[in-house]
Design brief:
transmembrane helix; DUF6480; membrane; 75 residues; mainly alpha; transmembrane
């Protein structure tokens, strides 16, 4: 039996280099897929709407008033 090491170029399959895959064998980046999906036509505004923000602030004020009243009654 002959047990010798194969030639270093033949030992690894193509692309299996120690530092990774050579640049010419890498897949395309994500930016090349920007047009792959459907066109988005509805772009809602950013930020909070007035009604939810008002309700949250009102709820926070009621909770704060409750604890303030409770603190004044207990003391």
């Amino acid at each position: 039996m002959n047990t010798h090491e194969p030639h270093p170029d033949q030992a690894r399959p193509r692309g299996a280099e120690p530092g990774g895959v050579p640049p010419q064998e890498t897949p395309p980046g994500e930016s090349s897929l920007s047009g792959a999906g459907p066109e988005e036509t509805h772009n809602p505004t950013k930020g909070w709407a007035k009604a939810p923000l008002t309700l949250i602030l009102l709820l926070a004020f009621c909770v704060a008033a409750f604890f303030l009243a409770y603190a004044l009654i207990v003391v």
